[in-house]
Amino acid sequence: MLWNFKKKKHPEYWETYLHHFEKKEKTNLDASRFVALDTETTGFDYYVDRILSIGAVSIVGNEITVADAFEIYLEQSHFDPKSVHIHGILQNSKKHQISEEDAIKQFLTYIEDSILIAHHASFDIKMINQALNRMGLPNLKNKVIDTMDLYASTRIKSNFIDKSVRYSLDDIAEAYTINLMDRHTAPGDALIAALIFLKTTTILKKSKSFKLERYFLKSNRF
């Protein structure tokens, strides 16, 4: 008996996304495009909970390009009313909502091969990867940086500082006097993450030993 082991064909939008990674990888601050993102979700269980909204802004040449900011809301097949007090997104929200698949398609088109930035990034990336997996697709290929790791590196190293501290977005925003008006909205938190990224890298790149690659999260985090 002959077995037909044909390579699984992925949809065109995924092939288009992969095509961006064929060009030479850039890893310096001035030449790279970064995308700071945030997801609001129904909860914290990667397998049960779902993404309610995705917000993102791009950073090019050390400047945030707010004009092309990304913001979408997803149809809610799963809903947990206990999480509403955090993100404020109601199940029957009047905001325009699209399917999970359409949302992921648009997100892939927006990010291309950009280096992704998020606070406690592994959570957001895992939630997006779970959505991709439900669509029969592999995980994201983008490099990812966690703003908490960047901020921790700017702190004075001494025996009096607990290296296991997990700085919240609020902690860092307060330290940098960043406005928290749109906190707990996907686009608002994405913008805060972008500002933290710019502030921390401005400090870190003063060191001759600074290398952006040092902050890329390992794939096993996702």
TrEMBL record:
Domain Exonuclease: from-to ranges: 33-206
Q: What's the domain of life for this entry? A: Bacteria
Instruction: Kindly state which keywords UniProt assigns to this record, in alphabetical order.
Output: Exonuclease, Hydrolase, Nuclease
Q: Name one GO molecular function term.
A: exonuclease activity
Q: Which residues form the signal peptide?
A: none
SUPFAM superfamilies, from UniProt?
Answer: Ribonuclease H-like
Please identify the protein, giving its name as recorded. Answer: 3'-5' exonuclease
* Species for this entry: Gelidibacter pelagius
